[in-house]
Design a protein that fits this description.
It is built from 21 helices and 26 strands. It is an alpha+beta fold. It starts with 17 loop residues before the first helix and ends with a strand.
Amino acid sequence: MAEGISAYNDESIQHLSDMDHVRTRPGMYIGRLGDGSHAEDGIYVLLKEVVDNSIDEFRMDFGKRIYIDIVDQKGMRIRDYGRGIPQGKLVEAVSELNTGAKYDTKTFKKSVGLNGVGLKAVNALSSLFEVSSYREGKVRHLSFERGQLSKDETLDTTDENGTEVYFVPDETLFLNYEIHDEFIEEKLRNYTYLNSGLNIYYKGQHIMSRNGLEDLLNDNMTVPALYPIVRLKGEDIEIAFTHTNQYGEEYYSFVNGQHTTQGGTHQSAFKEHIARAFKEFYGKTNIDVQDVRNGIVAAIALDVEEPMFESQTKIKLGSLTMSPGGVSVNKFVGDFIKENVDNYLHKNPEMAEILLQKIQDSERERKAMAGVTKLARERAKKANLHNDKLRDCHIHYNDARGNRQEESSIFITEGLSASGSITKSRDVATQAVFSLRGKPLNSFGLTKKIVYENEEFNLLQAALNIEDGLDGLRYNKVIVATDADVDGMHIRLLMITFFLEFFPDLIKKGHVYILQTPLFRVRNKVKKLRKSTTEKIHLEANAAGAAILKQQKSSTRAEFETRYCYTEQERLKAVQDLKPEPEITRFKGLGEISPDEFKYFIGADMRLERVSLHKDDHVDALLGYYMGKNTSERQDFIINNLSIEEDLPDEHFVEG
């Protein structure tokens, strides 16, 4: 037998219990684990799995209130007032896979959770899981610890019927997780947009919606609508749409109350048939669909019987039919749009005129830059064969197969030195690097023609594959990685301006991030006797939040303890901990961090700050002030608000 290969015999065959299987392979059940810093991280999937059951009760006309609270910033409590889980099967319902009432479509006709997995995954992946079922004057209460039953009691009660779940995600799985209210609030608002009459109370805040998808668009649009939002509703379908003067297309899609962030068959059908309906109404079949959909902001919600999703996390619909053996999703959506949108346009000629003007404006702009667009695409094709600005990775977000697509990312760096450090230390499987040549162009107030005229912008657009929308986006995370100085901050603003101007949906969908890198390195040099004679490097985190790198060498040599500090407070704490005479290095740029060190800052513990975009951000006013042509106004502001601080020398500082 080859050395290092274990024996394959009877003892190699293992059988895992349901709970052990979920804990061993959590990705099969909830997708990613994460630490709560991303909207799709596992702790929010666990919450969604619980709330989905409460929503299903509401959709079956049982229980209009759901209360959700965060306990000690670690636990989550959910109480609904539905029918309550049948008490005789409560243990099985929360701890045995493939157990549930939703296999019977008569009980739950159009539910999200049909696989009998949701609550079981929550149970298995929590250090503490408690469930109480209130039914007809009795409450049965169960407690589990990491999937193992620890308490079971039934008592009399005067509380209303319903189910209460309390769980604490297991910190041995969800390492250093933190709960971010903004991600939870967004998910809860989506529930209310899709379920008129539903009342959700989150940490005392009352969340509800009266106008469904119209409220969704109103709350998410960051630029004014050109005409009032059109909302059309039928049996098992609701759509809403308007146009704006922003570039690109923006879609929100849902199935049975589930936010399908990656779209699917229903969203594709909507895009196809909304363009066709507009073209047929105006009697101009030669209108380019790109002109019809440019600037559209739209939403579609569909109720499907026994929906099929492309993963357990249910973020992309795969169903081809509305029910087993029923009409196709494409035909159902197409027939509804053809009839209702056409009727609406005939009844609202003023709105139809505004829309036609928007289509014609888009057509004129597209034709005006047709020549430069053609040349730019040819250049991009040639560059794809040999693009010296792009160091690509193997796995991409739009890959049809595989299970690591969400890990795919691209670093946008300034200069060759910074890109060199990242390129040498990156994970070539999932991390790409795009190198900028100094400061990019300020694109504020320019038309999209500049995206094609400017070689750097055109190559970046081609690398991301977003010319025709986000459907083909090649990287889940677009990470702007610049030096932590004034020039680096300026480049960040220029890149964010570029995305806001021409690809705002890339930011709205949570794909754009800023890489946080250390400002200081603090290290001591202490003689210690060590048994080990081999070099060992490991990374851990201390209470101050600074990265610690320990390097142990032979017993006759010194041991270094190195801390990488991202803030002045972390630097002061490190100096205090590593006294008497630590060496302090101030990093001036990313290129000064060696690849051996840099790999820790773009690995599992990478610090990212997501760029967000909300309606109340007043983006146009902010961009106009900071990136516009009001140079004298900005100069006056700087002069009037300038403060001078004396930078005291530190004898321990070493320039990086």
